Amino acid sequence: VMARLFKSAYRILSKESLMLPSLVLTIRLFSTVGTTEAITSSIAAKKVSDLKQRVKIVNETENAVLISIHQNTFPDSRYHGPQVFYADDEISETVAQKLQTQLVSALDPDSNRKCKSSSGIYLMRNILKPGILIECGFLTNPEEEARLRAAAYQKKLVSIIAVSVSRQINQEIM
């Protein structure tokens, strides 16, 4: 099971321009000497520690709003489109709904993705401040991956996120 999981993660992580090349090299080195289980558990422990630290930083920061940006993957390459998840509070949900609408209308009008609660996601479940998690698109969809790699598309994506989120946060505060 661990080897299958590792091979799947490696296939996704080997998109070298979207990750740190040193991590790719480390994974390649460990996989050739048969230590995939050790590196997988080491990565998992680091991830848990990292998530706990992120929660602490968000919770200790006055007037914080968490904006966590990711790329999605799924074994079936037909899936596409951005999706926004929100923490369990009214501000987060409002910001997510507005951002989801903006992202879909500007970037992927054919997408039927809706924003969703993120209650199953550790980081979002444990923060005490508003927060959203943005999946910008699917790296496992070849057309969407190509768009996600393009500088112009990235600028458009960032602009939509910045304007939509700041507009909503300002409206919620005032």
In short:
The protein is an alpha/beta fold and 174 residues long.
Would you give an account of this structure?
α4 (90-107) runs antiparallel to α7. This protein has a four-stranded mixed β-sheet with strand order 1-4-2-3. α4 (90-107) links the parallel β2 and β3. It has helices at 2-13, 21-32, 36-60, 90-107, 122-126, 142-149, 151-173; strands at residues 66-72, 83-86, 116-117, 131-138. Helix content is 59%, strand content 12%. The protein has seven helices and four strands. Mean pLDDT is 79; it is low at 1-36. The protein is an alpha/beta fold.
Strand content: 5-15%
Low-confidence stretches: 1-36
Strand order of the largest sheet: 1-4-2-3
Structural class based on helices, strands and sheet pairing: alpha/beta
Tally of helical segments: 7
The shape is: globular
Order of helices and strands: HHHEEHEHEHH
Structure summary, number of beta strands:
4
How widely separated are the two ends?
51 Å
* Main pleated sheet: 4 strands, mixed
Proportion of residues in helical segments: 55-70%
Rg estimate, integer Å? 18 Å
Mean pLDDT: 79
Task: Label this structure with key terms.
174 residues; 7 helices; disordered N terminus
Give the SSE layout:
Elements: H1 2-13, H2 21-32, H3 36-60, E1 66-72, E2 83-86, H4 90-107, E3 116-117, H5 122-126, E4 131-138, H6 142-149, H7 151-173
Parallel strand pairs: 1-4, 2-3
Antiparallel strand pairs: 2-4
Helix pairs in contact: 4-7
